[in-house]
Amino acid sequence: MLWQPSLPERYQKMTDDELAAAITARKAELGDRLVILGHHYQQDDVVRHADFLGDSFKLSQLAAEKVDETGAKFVVFCGVHFMAESADILTPEDVTVILPDLSAGCSMADMAAYDDVVDAWEQIHGVLEADGFVGRVIPITYMNSSAAIKAFVGEHGGAVCTSSNADAVLAWAFAGGSEPRRDDEQIKIMFFPDQHLGRNTAAAMGYDPVTQMCLWDPRDPRGAGGTTPDDILRSAVILWKGHCSVHKLFRPEHVDQIKAHDPTMQVVVHPECMYEVVQKADHAGSTEKIRKLIENAEPGSRWAVGTEVHMVNRLAKEAAKRDVYVRILSECQCLCTTMYRIDPQHLLWTLDSLANGEVVNQIKVDERTRKWSLVSLQRMLDITGAAKPAPDRAAGVAK
Ligand code: SF4
């Protein structure tokens, strides 16, 4: 996690209303030069100033489109570090991406350190080669990973996925990825950094979580990620031991309690929740899928939602107007504490600095990392048939 110096004292002394008025004024002053992005899990006092609200990849794409349309030069990403990296990768070179608080990291992304991933990759290939394995390991990384891991995946024949398209990306990889699978080849997938999204997705495709998957824990004191050679050889999917500190708080017993209390309640959870929770839920899906389900829910219906509390509260407020009842799946404090570090004070400080000609907290991805990250992102876009990244960044990138 990066270190964020304290803000000048005057920001801490401002009231909520003063902060909101000052941010609005700075935003007007910066005009079309500025785009503010707000993630679904962000607090309301920040989201109210965002030009776009969405999930991490959608926001980066919207920022790239907006930059193309208006020539904006500054993107302030009210999210976490890996999201700002993605925005920097997908926007043109002369656009500056800013994270208002440098300590807003993502605990899941931090669980897959580059050196640990390289070490695991080499050890796994050592095991496979010793057994005469014929085939390939294709690395897949969730969008919620550092640019360094996205680049590693791009350089080793893999792709990025989101929680909306993980099934399509895994299907692509099992079919051989960018080179069709030969008849004599076996394909294994190494999935970073969220074990739960990897397990839930592969299980929904018919792979058995016990016999066809194993878990690589880079911190296991026994070495080899806590695996045996047999674990590696028998597994179609090798899951990295990472998780989201928010979604891991939802437990299977929370679903049981909700259903026991009100059998009419429908449960929808994010696939970053553990397998046992997803198995008990009525629906599982990305933040966008959850949002659409609730927005299209029948009046009178009742929903328990297993995702970050700020998003659930916003959905509940809107849904109540349509006589749809929405509550969080558990009363635990399921909030993304790192994202919560981005507050109106830090947002105002970044805008004040820009208005005074100073860039603070710029997130910049180096050229080589950007090049290979774009390869893994482009493969995902090709698999899902989605729009291309910003043209000047996509140019010259190998498939
Ligand atoms: S909710 Fe979880 S995965 Fe998302 S940014 Fe926070 S810690 Fe990371």
Q: Tell me the span between the first and last alpha carbons.
A: 32 Å
Portion in helices: 40-55%
Q: What would the principal axes of the Cα set say about the shape?
A: globular
Report the β-strand fraction as a percent range.
5-15%
Q: Major sheet: order of its strands? A: 6-5-7-9-8
What binds here, in terms of ligands, is: iron/sulfur cluster
Low-pLDDT parts are 389-399
Structural class estimated from helices and strands: alpha/beta
Q: What is the arithmetic mean of pLDDT?
A: 94
Number of strands: 13
If helices are DSSP runs of H or I spanning 4 or more residues, what is the number of helices?
18
Radius of gyration: 22 Å
Note the topology:
Elements: H1 9-13, H2 16-30, E1 34-39, H3 44-47, E2 52-54, H4 56-70, E3 74-78, H5 81-90, E4 96-98, H6 107-110, H7 114-130, E5 135-142, H8 147-155, E6 159-161, H9 166-174, E7 186-192, H10 195-204, E8 213-216, H11 229-234, E9 237-240, H12 252-261, E10 266-269, H13 275-280, E11 283-284, H14 287-295, E12 302-306, H15 309-320, E13 325-328, H16 344-355, H17 367-384, H18 391-394
Parallel strand pairs: 1-2, 1-3, 3-4, 5-6, 5-7, 7-9, 8-9, 10-11, 10-12, 12-13
Bound molecules: iron/sulfur cluster.
Iron/sulfur cluster binds at residues 41, 80, 106-108, 144, 244-246, 308, 336, 338-339.
Short characterization:
By secondary structure, the chain is α/β, with parallel strands linked by helices. It has 18 helices and 13 strands.
Describe this structure as you would to a colleague:
With 399 residues, this protein is of the alpha/beta class. It folds into 3 domains: 9-105 and 339-365, 3-Layer(aba) Sandwich (Rossmann fold); 110-240; 247-328, NadA-like (Rossmann fold, 3-Layer(aba) Sandwich). It is 44% helix and 15% strand. The strands form 3 sheets. Strands 6-5-7-9-8 form a 5-stranded parallel beta sheet, sandwiched between helices. The two termini are 32 Å apart. 46% of the residues are buried. Mean pLDDT is 94; it is low at 389-399.
